[in-house]
Each structure stands twice: as structure tokens, then as C-alpha cells.
Design goal:
The complex is a heterotrimer of chains A (about 300), B (about 250) and C (about 280).
Chain A lengths: L1 H9 L6 H17 L2 H18 L1 H4 L31 H37 L1 H16 L2 H12 L3 H28 L2 H8 L4 H37 L11 H8 L8 H28 L8
Helix pairs in contact in A: 3-5, 3-12, 5-6, 5-8, 5-10, 6-8, 7-8, 8-10, 10-11, 10-12, 11-12
Chain B lengths: L1 E12 L2 E2 L4 E6 L3 E5 L6 H9 L5 E7 L2 E2 L6 H6 E4 L13 H11 L5 H11 L16 H13 L5 E5 L7 H18 L2 E6 L2 H7 L2 E6 L2 E7 H5 L6 H13 L2
Parallel strand pairs in B: 4-9, 4-10, 7-8, 8-9
Antiparallel strand pairs in B: 1-2, 1-3, 1-5, 5-6, 10-11
Helix pairs in contact in B: 3-4, 5-6
Chain C lengths: L5 E12 L2 E13 L3 E6 L5 H8 L8 E3 L2 E4 L2 E2 L5 H7 L4 E4 L3 H4 L6 H10 L6 H14 L5 H5 L8 H13 L5 E5 L7 H18 L2 E6 L2 H7 L2 E6 L2 E7 L9 H8 L17 H5 L1
Parallel strand pairs in C: 3-9, 3-10, 7-8, 8-9
Antiparallel strand pairs in C: 1-2, 1-4, 1-5, 5-6, 10-11
Helix pairs in contact in C: 4-5, 4-7, 5-7, 7-8
Classes of the chains: A mainly alpha (about 300), B alpha/beta (about 250), C alpha/beta (about 280).
């Protein structure tokens, strides 16, 4: 069964669109699995997702339950990562924090990547004044420091996770628009795009159906690499109290709380910090691996 | 009947004028070649007819109907183009099936499955290639796909931009035979741009020699075969071709 | 002519792929004197790989092996990358297909040619200038002073290719490998460029390996021809005798080229039954 499925996937002459697509996905997955860093990255991201899904099973305590008699305990068999200043179990909070991180990262990707992709592709494809206006707006956003812009937006919208997500999304799309535009410019005059135009396809059809699919792979790579930055920005907002609000176990906010005890009770700040580092690294590794596999210049032929 | 007629066609790219008063009449079912060196404007003429070089004055008519400057669906049904480079003219992320179905979807033509199969058969592509991606095909197979894509809308006129110059000679022979057969079977009109005179001799009925944006001479291919072109520049091209034929 | 310039025996170039190793060159042997040798073949025949392996320009993971690979008595097989650099350019030069990708866009043509010379020889500034101008003149560039100060994007394709040839020939190598030197050019310019190569090769008594897909072109510019197919030499003959070739592949290839006075209704096609059933 497994062997025949594999044969079906690697078949040189697929007999349906579905088989062709799955075959391509299989080849990409195969190439990824031969890249050790990408495997490490995938394992970390997978662990993050599983932790988020099974948080109630993995957590040993209620992440919100305070117990002032148990405050600031060092890591032990009962509290694997120790407890914080309100006696909450840090391990359980880190585990539940995975959910918040995952939500932030996914929401930002879902909001910012398509917006950047479409704006960039339209600007690149049409050129002329649409390009100048769209890219002018993009440049305004790019010229502002990300964290400061996010800070200003959250300050205006009010603190909270939703607003943090919106603020981060607003600061990240311009980068994607730039990439999408650059990619579009390289393809726009290619013969296969000319051929589709000659068949009478509308501009919208050309952009959505033929230009965008070519930009997606570099976009996926870029978004994956940016995930680390997004997590750090979210943590930064949490750290200064503008992201997730207490008592939510957001990693950045947890570090902020632990800062007061960093010399005597190091684990309070270190454990969530460690989680941030591991997850960021995971996204970086996966992004690098994806870049090697998906990069159109290195080609799929080999 | 005249399939394609150009009158006083002046094409420009921005400030630069590429062609000067190009006039041509190509009969229905005829195979016509535009020959010349790079920079002669021969490819630009083809692009203007196709709609990829919209900045022109004069007139382009296909079967008596004047053509607008942009790309329009109606003209697309009557006239299609095959590009030079089979590696650059197919979308790298689309299967052959998607590439061939797309024109049908654009024009809302039904029965796609049967049409795609029929057009693949007519260009000699085995069914097993249908769901492959371009990178899984050889150069010759890709050019067959490009020809099939042009034919799937059942046009009357085919514009051919150096359709074999990127191919190996043995593959070139296959594609030339294919084009000849398709023209006979579907009563197509060809307008081919090339620098390769032997290919003209094999595939075409008449030719126009272009130089620096002007047509120098229009002749029958019989004249080319006998080495009886009149203009000195045409004879020069012929001479080079005879000694270093590609 | 007592010892050949280049001797190659059983040359193999191997590339690993996910489906096992593939030999792109499979046991090619030939010797070359100070003569003009043409290597003809279609894409994938291994002709370019053969040319590159002489200069050890096959990149990893590709591997080159040979029973003998010697140039002017030097065994190239065990030369280090550093030693090869001293040979490349100075003794064996290579002209590639497209001048646009081979010239440095931010250096003037004169500087690039001078650099090619200075990498291998120590000369005074004035001498270098003179040599560069003389070289440009010998590739039939009418006003060398002006052209030497131009940047690559300011010259045409044919001129660019002539500049490449000037760069490759100024250190006066013993062997020139020209890999499709004219396929990016117009036919009339092609003839000019080839005439220049031909003249320089003859005048300096160099060896020439001319790699091309174009049978007619090779037969009119070379003394001897090797026809390659799928990594092997299938035919070796004198240039003039190509029409009497014996191997079916060569004969098929010759027949499939259309002629200026074409009378055939259909061109004969190589038997590609393997292609249809694969």
C-alpha cells in the first residue's frame, strides 16, 4: 500500500491534476527531508503546533491559578520550570503561551502576506501610476521602524492581542509587497505571460491566475523567515505591556514580569525567553530549507 | 482571400521608430516568411500583429477586419502565436493540461477534456504527458505543447517567431514536419519570422527580406531556391546562408 | 607536431542524481595537435562537458575521471585548483556562448583585456596599453582607442564576442576551446567572428577545439570532426568527408538539416522510438 502510494506520487506521467500537484508536493517534501536544518526546523514547528493543540494535556497545572504560598519556587519535580511571583506554574504557562504565539503568527501571516502579495503584484504588473501610488504607500510604511510603528498603532488602538496582531500585520505587509513586485517585474515580460495575454485573458486573470502562483514560493520562504521577527515583535509588545494583557500567559509579557527577579530567580524570565528562541530558530531553519528547495533559480529539474 | 494585410505599418517603442511603412498581403492558406538579421524589425512586426507592441500607426487587418491596438478576444480566436523559446514560453508551475485548458476557459468553450486530448494528438504528444510540468519535457516536446496551445482555439492564422531556432537540428526537422502537416490539415495561414533561409525554403511559399525596419524585397521561395533574389542585400544573406547554413 | 598538444583517453564525467549516477561523458578519447578540431552534437550529447573537463571546470558534485588527460606533457588529472588557474587563460583559453554573461559589466573593455594579460604576465603600463590596442585591432575592431573605453553594455553582441576573443587570446594560449562561440549572434556576424578566430588560430599556430551543434559551421571551420551522441564519440572524420559519414546517427543528422534549395516534402527524422516509449 505504502509502496504503491509512493509509486503513484513519483509517477512521471500523472493521470490527473490532483496527482500532478500531490506529486510536486511530495518531491518538495522529499527535498526538504534531505536538508538537516529544515528537518530540525520542521520538528520544532510541529512541536509548537502539537503543544498548542494538546496544551491541556501537557500542562501540569492551571496556567492562571495563583498560589501565593508557592511563589518563586525553583524548577523541581512538581514545577518543572519553577513558579512565578504569583505562584503560577511556569511550564504550564509556557505551554499555553504556545497557543497565543501560534495565533499571533498565523493571523499576521493570513492578514499581511496576501495583502502584500496582491498589492505588489498589481503594482508590478500594471506599472505606471498605479505602481507609483501603491509603492509610494509601501515606502512610507517601510521607512518607519517596525516596532515604533507597531507601538504607535497599539497605543492608538488600545492594548490587547487582536490589536497587536493588526499592528504587526500593518508593519509587515510592505516587505511582502516589495518582493511580490520585484518577482512580478521579472515575469511580466516573459513569453509565457505574453502567450496567456494573447489568448485574450483579462489582466485580472493574468495577475491572479498566472503571476501570483509564481510569487507564492518566494513569499512562503520570506513569511517563514519573518515569523521569528513577528514572534519577537509580539513578545516586545507584550514586554512593554501593549500586547497580550495579564493574566494571559504570553511569552513576552512573562519575561517582562520576570525581569524584576532576574538575578535571584533567573528561571522566571529565562524559561519563556528560551521558548521564544527555540521557536524563532525553528522558523529560521525551516525558512532557509524552504528557500533552498523552492528557489526558482536553483530549479526543480535537478 | 487575403488572410492578413499590413498597410504602411510604422511601429515604435517609445521614441524609437522600429519599422517604416511595412506593407504586406498574405493570402489565406499561404505560408509567408519575414527574414532579416536581429534589429531588422521582423519580430516587432509579429508582435504588433499579435498585440504585444501596441504603439503603431497604419493598419493591420485580418480577414478584412481591422485590428485594434490592444489585445482582444475576438482577434485571439483568429490569430495565435508560437514563440521562439520553448523553455520560456510555458508557465513553469502549470501542467500541460492546465496550459492547454486555459485558452478554452478564457473563451468559455466547453468540452475541454476532449479538446485538450484532440489537440495533443494532433501535435503528436502522447497522453501520458498531459499532467506533466514543463520541466519534465524535452525542448521538442515543449515546442509541441506551445504549438498545441496556439492551435487549441482553432485559429486561422499562426504567427511563428523563430519556432525552431532554439531546438536541435533533429528536433527542428520534427517540428518543421509537424508545422507543414498542420498547415495542410487545418488550412492554416503562416507568418513566420526567421533568420534561417533553408527553413524558409522548406516551409514557406513567399518571403520578405527586411533590413533596418524596411522591407527590401518580396519574393517567391522558388526564387530563393534558384538563388535568384534581386536585391544585393538579399543576395548577401543568401550567400552567407549557403556557406555557413545553420 | 611530434608530441600531441592534448591527449585524452577514456574521459568520463559523472553526475550523481537522486536516481543514481549518470555519466554525461562516457569514455571519450582523442588527441589533438596544433589543428582545428570540431566537436558536434545535440544538446545533452556531452560536448560542452568534454570541453569543460579539459579545463577542470566541472563543478561538484560532478566528477571527472580519465585514463589519460595530458596537455603538452602536463598531466592535468592531478593538478590542484591553484595550478589549474595558472594554466587556464595563459595556456588554454575558453570562449563561451554569450558575451553578455562573460564580461564584467562595471569594467571597461580595455581594463578587462588588460587584466586578462596582467594575470599571467608582468608588463609595464605602456606596453599593456599597446598590446591591448593591437589585440583589439587584430579582432578587426576599427577604432580600438574608443572601444577600449566602452563598457560591455555599450557594444553590440558581435562586438562583445570579439572582445571576449581578444581577452582570451591576448595571453597567447596554446589551445583555444570555443564553446558555441557564435550561436548568440546573427549569421553575418557569425561568419566574421569565426573568420577572426580562424585567422588568429592559424597565425599563432594554436590548437582549436570548436564545440557546436551546427554541423555545417563546424565542417567549414575545422580540419577534423568528432560527432558526439549521449556522451560518446560516434564518428570521427575529416571535415570535408562529413557527407560520407558512416554512422547512422551522423547520417540522420546530416539528412535532417533543411537545404537552401529544399525539394523534399518531408524532412527525414532521427529514429526516436526510444523517445516515444520512455
Amino acid at each position: 500500500m505504502a509502496a504503491s502510494l509512493r509509486a503513484w506520487l513519483v509517477d512521471d506521467s500523472p493521470s490527473s491534476r490532483l496527482q500532478a500537484r500531490l506529486g510536486r508536493a511530495w518531491r518538495i517534501a522529499g527535498a526538504l527531508s534531505r536538508n538537516p536544518l529544515a528537518v530540525v526546523g520542521t520538528v520544532i514547528i510541529l512541536a509548537l503546533v502539537l503543544t498548542a493543540i494538546f496544551a491541556p494535556l501537557l500542562a501540569t497545572h492551571d496556567p492562571l491559578k495563583q498560589d501565593l504560598t508557592q511563589r518563586l519556587l525553583a524548577p523541581s519535580a512538581a514545577n518543572w520550570m519553577g513558579t512565578d511571583e504569583l505562584g503560577r506554574d511556569i511550564w504550564s504557562r509556557v505551554v499555553y503561551g504556545a497557543r497565543i504565539t501560534l495565533v499571533i503568527v498565523t493571523m499576521v501571516a493570513v492578514l499581511a502576506a496576501p495583502a502584500g502579495l496582491i498589492i505588489g503584484a498589481l503594482a508590478g504588473y500594471f506599472g505606471g501610476w498605479p505602481d507609483r501610488i501603491l509603492m509610494g504607500i509601501t515606502d512610507i510604511f517601510l521607512s518607519l521602524p517596525k516596532l515604533i510603528l507597531a507601538l504607535a498603532l497599539v497605543a492608538a488602538l488600545g492594548p490587547g492581542i487582536e490589536n497587536a496582531v493588526i499592528a504587526i500585520a500593518i508593519t509587515t505587509w510592505p516587505g511582502y509587497a516589495r518582493i511580490a513586485r520585484a518577482e512580478t517585474l521579472t515575469f511580466k515580460n516573459s513569453e509565457f505571460i505574453s502567450a496567456i495575454r494573447l489568448q485574450g485573458a483579462s489582466s485580472l486573470r493574468v495577475v491572479l491566475g498566472h503571476v501570483l502562483p509564481l510569487c507564492t514560493s518566494s513569499m512562503i520562504v520570506r513569511v517563514t523567515l519573518d515569523m521569528a521577527g513577528i514572534i519577537l515583535t509580539a513578545a516586545g509588545l507584550g514586554f512593554i505591556g501593549l500586547g497580550a494583557q495579564p493574566p494571559l500567559p504570553e511569552w513576552g509579557a512573562m519575561i517582562a514580569r520576570g525581569r524584576s527577579f532576574i538575578l535571584d530567580q533567573w528561571w522566571v524570565a529565562t524559561m519563556p525567553g528560551f521558548a521564544i528562541i527555540v521557536v524563532s530558530l525553528g522558523f529560521c531553519f525551516l525558512g532557509d530549507g524552504l528557500r533552498d528547495v523552492l528557489d526558482p533559480k536553483s530549479g526543480e529539474q535537478h | 482571400m487575403t488572410a492578413l494585410s499590413l498597410k504602411n505599418l510604422d511601429i515604435s517603442y517609445g521614441e524609437t521608430r522600429i519599422t517604416h511603412s511595412v506593407s504586406l498581403d498574405i493570402a489565406e492558406g499561404e505560408s509567408f516568411a519575414l527574414v532579416g538579421e536581429s534589429g531588422s524589425g521582423k519580430s516587432t512586426v509579429l508582435k504588433a500583429i499579435a498585440g504585444l507592441a501596441p504603439d503603431w500607426t497604419g493598419s493591420i487587418t485580418a480577414f478584412g477586419k481591422p485590428r485594434s491596438h490592444g489585445i482582444d478576444g475576438h482577434f485571439a480566436r483568429a490569430c495565435q502565436m508560437v514563440f521562439q523559446d520553448p523553455y520560456g514560453s510555458l508557465h513553469p508551475r502549470k501542467t500541460i493540461d492546465a496550459t492547454l485548458s486555459e485558452p478554452l476557459s478564457i473563451h468559455g468553450i466547453g468540452n475541454q477534456n476532449a479538446r485538450v486530448e484532440a489537440v495533443m494528438a494532433s501535435v503528436g504528444l502522447d497522453r501520458k504527458f498531459r499532467f506533466r510540468f514543463p520541466h519534465q519535457l524535452s525542448g521538442g516536446q515543449r515546442q509541441r505543447v506551445a504549438i498545441a496551445r496556439a492551435l487549441v482555439l482553432e485559429p486561422k492564422i499562426l504567427l511563428l517567431d523563430e519556432p525552431t531556432s532554439a531546438l536541435d537540428v533533429s528536433v527542428q526537422a520534427e517540428i518543421l514536419n509537424l508545422l507543414k502537416r498542420l498547415r495542410r490539415e487545418q488550412n492554416l495561414t503562416f507568418l513566420m519570422v526567421t533568420h534561417n533561409l533553408p527553413v524558409v525554403s522548406f516551409l514557406c511559399d513567399r518571403l520578405a527580406v527586411m533590413r533596418q525596419g524596411r522591407i527590401v524585397e518580396i519574393a517567391d521561395v522558388a526564387q530563393l531556391k534558384q538563388g535568384a533574389l534581386r536585391e544585393p542585400y538579399s543576395r548577401e544573406l543568401m550567400q552567407i546562408s549557403a556557406t555557413h547554413a545553420a | 607536431m611530434s608530441t600531441p598538444l592534448l591527449e585524452i583517453e577514456n574521459l568520463r564525467v559523472t553526475f550523481p542524481t537522486p536516481r543514481g549516477e549518470i555519466d554525461v561523458v562516457r569514455g571519450v578519447s582523442f588527441t589533438l595537435g596544433r589543428e582545428r578540431l570540431g566537436i558536434v552534437g545535440e544538446s545533452g550529447s556531452g560536448k560542452s562537458m568534454t570541453g569543460r573537463s579539459i579545463l577542470k571546470l566541472i563543478r561538484a558534485p560532478g566528477r571527472v575521471s580519465a585514463d589519460r588527460l595530458s596537455f603538452d606533457g602536463i598531466d592535468l588529472r592531478n593538478r590542484s585548483e591553484r595550478q589549474m588557474r595558472a594554466i587556464r587563460g595563459a595556456r588554454i583559453s575558453m570562449v563561451m556562448q554569450d558575451p553578455k554573461f562573460s564580461l564584467n559589466p562595471v569594467m571597461t573593455i580595455g581594463e578587462q583585456i588588460a587584466e586578462a594579460l596582467l594575470t599571467h604576465k608582468r608588463l609595464s603600463r605602456r606596453e599593456v596599453g599597446q598590446r591591448v590596442l593591437a589585440m583589439l585591432e587584430s579582432v578587426r575592431i576599427a577604432d580600438p582607442e574608443r572601444v577600449a573605453n566602452l563598457y560591455p553594455h555599450e557594444v553590440s553582441g558581435g562586438m562583445g564576442q570579439r572582445v571576449m576573443i581578444a581577452m582570451m587570446l591576448i595571453p597567447e594560449p596554446d589551445l583555444l576551446i570555443a564553446d558555441e562561440p557564435t550561436s548568440a549572434l546573427d549569421v553575418s556576424v557569425q561568419a566574421q567572428v569565426l573568420d577572426i578566430i580562424d585567422e588568429l588560430v592559424k597565425r599563432k599556430g594554436m590548437g582549436l577545439i570548436f564545440i557546436s551543434h551546427d554541423l555545417n559551421l563546424v565542417s567549414s571551420y575545422c580540419d577534423r570532426i568528432l560527432v558526439m551522441n549521449t556522451g560518446q564519440v560516434v564518428e570521427e572524420c575529416r571535415a570535408g568527408e562529413l557527407q560520407n559519414a558512416t554512422h547512422p546517427y551522423t547520417r540522420g543528422l546530416v539528412a535532417s538539416i533543411p537545404r537552401l534549395n529544399e525539394t523534399r516534402d518531408e524532412l527525414p527524422v532521427l529514429d526516436r522510438s526510444a523517445w516515444a516509449s520512455k
